[in-house]
Amino acid sequence: MKKPVLAYVVLGVAASSANAQSVTLYGVVDGSINYQTPGDRVNGGESSWRLAGDGSHQTAAGSRWGFRVAEDLGGGLTATAVLESGFNSDTGTSGQGGRLFGRQSYVGIRSTSLGEVRLGRQQTMSYEMMSIIDPGSNASATTIRESVVIQRAGFGVAGAPGAALDSYQMFGTYGDRRDNALHYYTPNVGGFEAALYAAAGEGVIPRTNGGKLTFANKQLQAGVSYEQAEKVNGIGAAGKSLTVGASYDFGVIKLHAGYNQVKDFGFVNAGNNGFSLSALIRDSEAYTIGTTIPLGMMKFMINYTAGTFALTSGGDRDLNKVAAVAQYQLSKRTLTYASYERKGGDLANFATDKSNLTVFGVRHAF
């Protein structure tokens, strides 16, 4: 008789612990078949078939798995933690430069009255803004953050070899995530939320900091973010990125719009978050307008994005993109999709990906 009683006690304690703390395993697996065509100045414009699974513009979402933890501490306090690992479903390799938890890795404390503090590797403020501005919320062909690989010769630099390449974003966000970051999020007050962050360079890479202010109600979402990197390349010059945008849901259609301005244009080293200022580009400006159209189990997303890059030598170059995506919801967790995007402007023929047709893609969430 003692064993059943003991078993009930153990189960009772376990249930009590389970109520106090929740641990959620979640993930997304995404893959697609694509037909990609480079610009006329790249490999003679030779097209190729590709299989993608890395969360780029060729897929609907970044493949990932992770843990989300929350523990009720009482008194309106909750301990939180997120460990999120990105991977490439087409090759089975880790994303984000091979990091174990490269997408997110942080721990924090949330208060119902004071807000939340987080410490660790986290998304940047401008990255979080994309969920308002971009119909595809940071993924799919409509992404306004696509890293477009362009030959330096496209910027008219004398003597630049055609094979010399750099990655450029029309909406310059100076990267998606920061290491060693301290974030603070205010409570929601009348639909308004604010956030601040600082990422320590720890004497190795430039310090970064920034903030955002957002507003949301049933139909309208709007926000502004600002970020800067300090002492880039060991000098006082700093990269600065301003992003403003909004979306409005009319029910039958949702509209998105945004504007981005970058001063002291630079690049991010994905391996260590280090910055380097561009020798070719001084500043950039970009804008986007798009729409989401739900039709039963179908959803269509269309947008147009255009960017202008001011050269350090004078003059400018431009790049634009039009994109369309069709998604069909097979179930609550699984959808299929197809998409098409095409780039134009001065730099399009120097891009390694001028146009891309996603013939078929599938995304499953768990």
Describe it:
This protein has 366 residues and is mostly beta strands. The chain has a single domain, classed as Porin. The chain is built from two helices and 22 strands. It has helices at 2-20, 125-133, and strands spanning 21-37, 48-52, 64-74, 77-88, 93-94, 104-111, 115-123, 148-151, 165-168, 177-185, 192-199, 208-216, 220-229, 239-249, 254-263, 266-268, 275-277, 281-295, 298-311, 316-329, 334-344, 355-365. The strands form three sheets. Strands 1-3-4-6-7-10-11-12-13-14-15-18-19-20-21-22 form a 16-stranded antiparallel β-barrel. It has a two-stranded antiparallel sheet with strand order 8-9. The radius of gyration is 22 Å and the shape is globular.
Named CATH architecture: Beta Barrel
CATH overall fold name:
Porin
Number of strands: 22
Strand order within the widest beta sheet: 1-3-4-6-7-10-11-12-13-14-15-18-19-20-21-22
Low-confidence stretches: 1-18
Bulk shape: globular
Spatial gap, N to C terminus? 41 Å
- Element-by-element helix/strand order: HEEEEEEEHEEEEEEEEEEEEEEE
CATH hierarchy class name: Mainly Beta
Helix % is: under 10%
CATH superfamily: Porin
Summarize the structure.
Helix content is 8%, strand content 55%. With 366 residues, it is mainly beta. The N terminus is likely disordered.
Produce the secondary structure layout.
Blueprint: H1 2-20, E1 21-37, E2 48-52, E3 64-74, E4 77-88, E5 93-94, E6 104-111, E7 115-123, H2 125-133, E8 148-151, E9 165-168, E10 177-185, E11 192-199, E12 208-216, E13 220-229, E14 239-249, E15 254-263, E16 266-268, E17 275-277, E18 281-295, E19 298-311, E20 316-329, E21 334-344, E22 355-365
Antiparallel strand pairs: 1-2, 1-3, 1-22, 3-4, 4-5, 4-6, 6-7, 7-10, 8-9, 10-11, 11-12, 12-13, 13-14, 14-15, 15-18, 16-17, 18-19, 19-20, 20-21, 21-22
